Amino acid sequence: MPAGDITAYCFLEAAPGKADELLETLSKAQAWAEANEPGCLMYRISVDPADKHKVCVFEVYKDQAALDFHIASEVSKNNVAFYAAGGLSKPLEEQDIRVHTEYRKN
User: Quick one: what percent of the chain has pLDDT higher than 90?
Assistant: First the structure.
């Protein structure tokens, strides 16, 4: 199967009272990725209109190296630290995160 860009769909739920802090943390990551990661093709944050604690982060990277660069960045490490300090409703490993590779038919 031919492969293309790598897309991450991260459905996160903030801990009670942490929605604004989660959005601020993600916004910093978005700004940093857009300014410093040429391999990050898209980084979008969406909020459930019925519950601001439910967030979807949609990220597109040109390849695995670009995704690895993002994961290793200081801003990503700061996000993970926020999550581990109780920023999410449950541990990151239990959040709904999906990584897909673009399919392109030749």
Answer: 92
Buried b (16+ CB within 10 A) or exposed e, 33-62: beeebebbeebebebeeeeebbbebebbbe
Map the chain to HEC letters.
CCEEEEEEEEEEEECCCCHHHHHHHHHHHHHHHHHHCCCEEEEEEEEECCEEEEEEEEEEECCHHHHHHHHHCHHHHHHHHHHHHHHECCCHHHCEEEEEEEECCC
Q: Which residue has the tokens 């630290």?
A: 81
Q: Could you give the C-alpha distances from 99 to 6, 47, 59, 86, in angstroms and in order?
A: 7, 19, 9, 24
* Helical axes 74-82 vs 64-72, angle rounded to 10°: 60
- Residue 53 has phi, psi (to 5 degrees) of -75, -15
Q: What is the pLDDT of residue 3?
A: 66
